[in-house]
Amino acid sequence: MDTRERIVVTGLGALTPIGLSVDTFWKAMMRGESGAAPITHFDASTFKVRFACELKGFDPLSYMDRKQATRLDPFCRYALASAQQAVEDAQLQPEACSQEKRDRIGVVFGSGIGGLQVLETQAKVLLEKGANSLSPFMIPMMIGNMASAMIAMQYGFRGPNHGVTSACTTGNDAIQDAILLLRQGYADVVVCGGSEATITPLGVGGFAAMRALSTRNDAPQTASRPFDANRDGFVVGEGAGTLVLETLSHAQARGARVYAEVLGFGASSDAYHYAAPDPSGTGVVLAMQRALKDANVKSQQVDYINMHATSTPLGDVAESNAIKQVFGTHANALKLSATKSMTGHLLGAAGAIEAIATILAIQYNMIPPTINVKSLSPDCDLDYTLAEPCASKVNIALSNAFGFGGHNTAIVFQKFAV
User: Fold this and answer.
1) Does the pLDDT of residue 131 top 70, yes or no?
2) Boundaries of domain holding 196
3) Does the predicted TM-score (pTM) go above 0.85?
4) DSSP assignment of 135-196
5) Does the residue 417 lie in any domain?
6) Which residues belong to the active site?
């Protein structure tokens, strides 16, 4: 019998290329909208890749004053905005909490790259004007842990606090660390998630140089096409996602609304390559197997998987094959989808955003679609819920995330029942 403290999700916040709130994000997914469009953040006319999934209409002054906004890199602005949404959604009301209670609220928040925009602008200052002209805010604006630090400062949360950087698994790893802190009694509540803002000349140019990105400049909205026979790379996105996790006993004591229960997680390393996935899928298999074991869930109990599936030739096949290995004949009964087909790849924020999509799938018993698949690749032969959302009972679901360096994670969520 599992005697561990039960962990539940009580708050959500999302800034995505298809919606600047959880509600608008979900509705856009149900409509099958694409967030991809020509880049507006900078002049990309000479770049090999000239499109991305940018945030549209985001105003940081809706969440902070102008002085604070100017002293934060966009990734940190996004983190604070999504965290504010989640804290308000959870009705934590930190301003009304005693400091003793806030001492038991932790923050674990990450970014795959951190303050890339400020790094680029200050590098230009260094070259053109010299070191004495650099901003005194450059370092704190750039370092990746500043998102978690700023969230804690905003609300006076003095529980455990750290940043996470593990490429595209960052969001999932932040959730996993939050689970451990709650299980081990170091906190009653943890605000966790991930943020990314790499649609900059260096970010887009660097990923393009790796040949990691789709080059469909003539049709950006259909460029992110997981499982399609003609997929040619991912579409870089930006944004942030935040979840409020807390122990069930704490949530019940304060009468909190519960979205879902977090049953467990699994993690592994490919130990194979700095960018390419292990074609055998061994690391991905281990992560999902460990997640099911930690959650005390049998493979045939899983209803849905939000796949990492980035629209790359290697990654989509490796993950699909790993699912077959872990779930056997049940793999054909699973509902699967790749929401990156709509949002693009939010890198360090991807895990958090896709965990939110998974939780909403559980709440609404609706499977988000995978859009843009025109011709299914013969080596991707599972039920990917193509084109349109699908009504289907979802009791237990997995959210997968894998990252450069061979990081693999899976988190198991369940419909909440007292």
Assistant:
1) yes
2) 7-406
3) yes
4) -TTHHHHH-TTHHHHHHHHHHT--S-EEEE-BTBTHHHHHHHHHHHHHHTTS-SEEEEEEEE
5) no
6) 168, 308, 345
